[in-house]
Each structure stands twice: as C-alpha cells, then as structure tokens.
Amino acid sequence: MSGPRVVQAMMSGMQQLDDLDRRIVAALQVNGRASWTDIAAAVDTSVTTVARRAQQLLSDGVVRIIALTKLQQGGDGDLFLVRLCCTAGRQLATAAALVDRPDVRFLAVLTGEHDLIVEILVPRGAGLHAVLVEQLQGIPWVRQSVAELVLHTYKIGQDWSRQLIGGADQLSHPHAPHLCDDSHLDELDTRIVALLHEDGRAGFQTLAKRLGVNESTVRRRCEALYRRGCVETVTLVPAAVLGYEAEVMLFVSVEPARLESVAALLAEHRGVRFVAAVLGQYSLVCEVIMPTTEDLYRFVTGTLGSIDGVRSWQANVEALTVKRGFVVVPWAGEALANARTDQA
User: Bridge partners of 68?
Assistant: First the structure.
C-alpha cells in the first residue's frame, strides 16, 4: 500500500506512527529544510534511517512540507475568519465547494453550533460583500455565516510536537519578527517561493533547473529569504498519527484592557498553535492541540481558566482539517472525493 491509500488507512483506523517516525516528523516541524544529518543527530539514529523513513513519509503523503511568505500569511490583504452553518449532512459538500479557492488559507469541519471554519484572505480593495456574502453564502448548503476580521495575529506555531524530541534546539533558526511587503520579493524570488510552496524541501539544484538559472543564484536568494524572515517552512501532518487526540478552536471573550496580556500568555503555551485578535463577538481566537483529552482539560481549567481578564469562551472540536497554509492536506482527499461523488 502506498500514496494516498496509506494516509486514508491511517486516518480511518487512527493508526499511529511508531516512536522514531514521530520524532522524525517532530524534527521536520521544527525545521522542514533541516538536513538528514542534523535530524539524525536530533533523534539519535543513523542518517540512512532518517532519510529512508522521512522520504517514505513524504512519498506517502503523511507529511507535506511547504513554504509560505509572510505576504501569504496576510500581509497583502485582510484575513477573515468565517464560521458557516450548513444543511445537515452537507458539511463536506460545502468544504469541497470551498477548498479549491486560492484565497482560502485554512478550512476545517467543526463540531458544535457552526459546521465549518474558513480563514479567507480578501485582497485590499476587493468587495467584501462579493466575497463574504455573494460567494460564500451563495453555496447551496450554506444556511448562515459569521465573518470576523482578524485584527492581529500573535502566533502561528508549527512546532507543537517539539516535546517528542530532545535535540530540537539545534534545528531551529530563529529570526526577528519581520513585516514583509511586495518590495521584498522580486520576480525571481516569487517564482522560487511558488516552487517551494509545492515542495518545501526542494533542493537548490532542482529549483535552479526548473527556473533556468544557476544554482548559486538560487542558493543565495533562498538563504536571504529565510534569513530575513520573508519565507517560512511549514510541515503539515495529521495530529492523530502522532498520537494527539484533541484539536480545538477556542473563541475567547476578554476584558478589552487585558487583550494583549491574555494573548501573550496563551501564545507562550506550546500546545497553542494559533492566536489572533478578531473583531466580533469574541476578542481572541485560539487553536489548541493537545496529546490527550485530559491534557485539554488541564489547559482549559489550569491555564485558560486562571488567566486574569478572560471572561468566557466557546469551544469547537476540529473534526477534520481540510486545508492549511493554502494547501489541501492529503489526508482529507478521500472525504472530499466522496463528497464530490455524492454531489454528481
């Protein structure tokens, strides 16, 4: 069994990776472009073993590595978080109607009052009514929507599984926060990033061949983009295969004067993958991923519940992540294909 079938089997049966595979994936989440040699040192095994196992995980679609620019993270438009209520039984059909939109960065099926959450990038100058009302609510199965403007993003964390390995620090390449704009990337930079968005581990030689330029130029450009913080490598993996049980979206009501301090405290927690201030009923949106339901309970009662300034919250379990980082995740493929077949 290979390719998408492996992913489908893992997700349908909740089969987990073994300990070494999990540690390799965790290392790739810390630095998706780390060399096999560095990863082998971090997980304490041979370079040959790491290369063989990691390449198999990538080939099977269990792991997907992409590159995103800071512009793709909202720098060239306004991000909206939209929660949708759908006709019963049509959640995946609605997701299938949304997933191929290039302006959708994140899409997941939720439990609770709302069925889907969509993070959509609306270019500045675009008509909000056309995108958020005519297009989204024009989908046949959408009954209701709530759109909230993302005012500020405090954290987008990629290393929530870092606790699985002990040698993660040697893989990290921290840089100062960077506000990117169009002037930072010229035409060649944009073409390089487009290829890295398809394959975040693509080598300099491969990139140079596809772009028709020399390897040293590509190497220099890539190193500059990563060093300045214009580009970030993101490793996508289904949480379930790493043994994580709980993925939750929290909508948190906060006293206005304490918004910054509450967001900062939440962002410090490794299990918090995303924190943003939004303009809407709730002050903050927080995506949390925890190894077990018991860990989630301790987070809600011991962390969130003890932060001064938090008034209340609403929680929704993520039943299925469909798109992240503008990429359709491989493990959602079967569910989307079935939904499209049912529509035909």
Answer: 232
